[in-house]
């Protein structure tokens, strides 16, 4: 607030000083003013400066008091012009009285032509002053409102993002527990091993889920733990191939996003096939993007009909974090292969 006041007064003093200096130069250049009294000349210039500063400050007070700063810019213009005429008239009579009576020690003489010309000059001056003041005010308010909206949007996005991330753990735990449940009666030893792996996965995922971004390397470690848990259930029905460019490992990604894609590929693709299938996880850098492709044996139509949570969650998180720069799509590469392609901008 103090800084804004200092800037306002700096512009006030600089503006009126420039105006008074311009008047002084113009009068000095006029050959008819060769015999002018220098003392009265500088006193008159000083009076214009003081009157300008004082009335423009009063002008500002009236604007604030009337609440015109809250109006739209186009609505303010006619009001400002009308008020400028009032203040222009007051400035003329005040300056004329000061010049004639207080400085020149003569009586005040009113002449219509001279008065109208000087009132117009002062009115134009106050109109320009008010337009500049309103323009600065509206630009400042617009920037403050924009910053406020951005902060609100960021807070809203953070809340939404946290809600989406909080949905992942229950969803993930539910699927993992179903896998373990299927093993309890079939293979108790494998079920015990699966519980151990699940506890490791949950510990890691809870730590990672507190972060907005994690490295691809950390995400892949979680993915591999999850796949090892699923392999206990599917055994030879699940084959996994990794094709990871090492340059991609330090790149940041949203936590549990690739894990969710892999989970959907297994649940809605490979698990539907009696003989199982292959899951292929690729990661490489393409231009300014990290491109992650998860392909699996399966059919896209079946996958789309039952995987709404994973797809919707992924798209929503990408939109919050990257806007339109990131992308996620599912496509049928051929008759038996479905591909999930994720592209994240490098930051």
Defining traits:
single chain, 347 residues, alpha+beta, Heat Shock Protein 90, 5-stranded mixed β-sheet, two-stranded antiparallel sheet, 9 helices, rod-shaped
3D structure, described in words:
It is a single chain. The chain is α+β, with helices and mostly antiparallel strands. The protein has 2 domains: 2-149, no CATH class; 187-345, Heat Shock Protein 90 (2-Layer Sandwich). The protein is built from 9 helices and 7 strands; from the N terminus they run H-H-H-H-H-E-H-E-E-H-E-E-H-H-E-E. It has helices at 2-29, 38-66, 73-103, 112-186, 188-208, 216-234, 257-268, 300-306, 308-322; strands spanning 214-215, 238-244, 252-253, 277-286, 289-297, 327-334, 337-345. The strands form 2 sheets. A 5-stranded mixed sheet has the order 2-4-5-7-6. Strands 1-3 form a two-stranded antiparallel sheet. Helix 5 (188-208) packs antiparallel against helix 6 (216-234). The two termini are 36 Å apart. The model has no long low-confidence stretch (mean pLDDT 80).
């Amino acid at each position: 607030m103090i800084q804004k006041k200092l800037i306002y007064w700096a512009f006030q003093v600089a503006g009126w000083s420039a105006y008074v200096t311009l008047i002084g130069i113009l009068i000095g250049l006029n050959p008819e003013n060769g015999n002018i009294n220098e003392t009265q000349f500088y006193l008159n210039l000083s009076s214009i400066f003081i009157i300008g500063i004082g009335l423009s400050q009063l002008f500002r007070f009236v604007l604030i008091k009337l609440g015109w700063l809250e109006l739209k810019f186009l609505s303010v213009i006619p009001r400002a012009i009308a008020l400028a005429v009032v203040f222009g008239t007051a400035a003329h009579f005040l300056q004329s009285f000061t010049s004639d009576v207080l400085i020149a020690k003569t009586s005040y003489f009113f002449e219509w032509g001279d008065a109208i010309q000087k009132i117009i000059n002062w009115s134009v001056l106050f109109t320009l002053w008010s337009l500049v003041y309103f323009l600065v005010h509206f630009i400042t308010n617009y920037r403050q409102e924009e910053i406020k909206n951005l902060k609100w949007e960021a807070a809203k996005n953070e809340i939404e993002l946290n809600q989406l991330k909080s949905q992942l753990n229950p969803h993930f735990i539910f699927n993992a527990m179903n896998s373990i449940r299927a093993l309890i009666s079939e293979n108790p030893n494998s079920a015990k091993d699966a519980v151990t792996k699940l506890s490791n996965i949950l510990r890691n995922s809870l730590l990672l889920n507190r972060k907005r971004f994690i490295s691809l390397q950390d995400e892949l470690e979680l993915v591999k733990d999850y796949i090892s848990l699923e392999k206990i259930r599917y055994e030879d029905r699940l084959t996994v191939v990794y094709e990871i460019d090492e340059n991609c490992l330090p790149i940041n990604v949203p936590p549990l996003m690739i894990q969710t894609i892999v989970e959907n590929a297994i649940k809605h693709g490979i698990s539907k096939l009696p003989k199982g299938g292959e899951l292929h996880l690729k990661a490489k850098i393409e231009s300014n993007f990290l491109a992650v492709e998860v392909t699996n044996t399966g059919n896209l139509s079946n996958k789309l009909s039952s995987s709404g949570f994973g797809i919707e969650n992924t798209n929503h998180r990408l939109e919050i974090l990257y806007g339109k720069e990131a992308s996620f799509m599912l496509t049928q590469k051929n008759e038996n292969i479905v591909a999930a392609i994720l592209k994240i901008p490098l930051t």
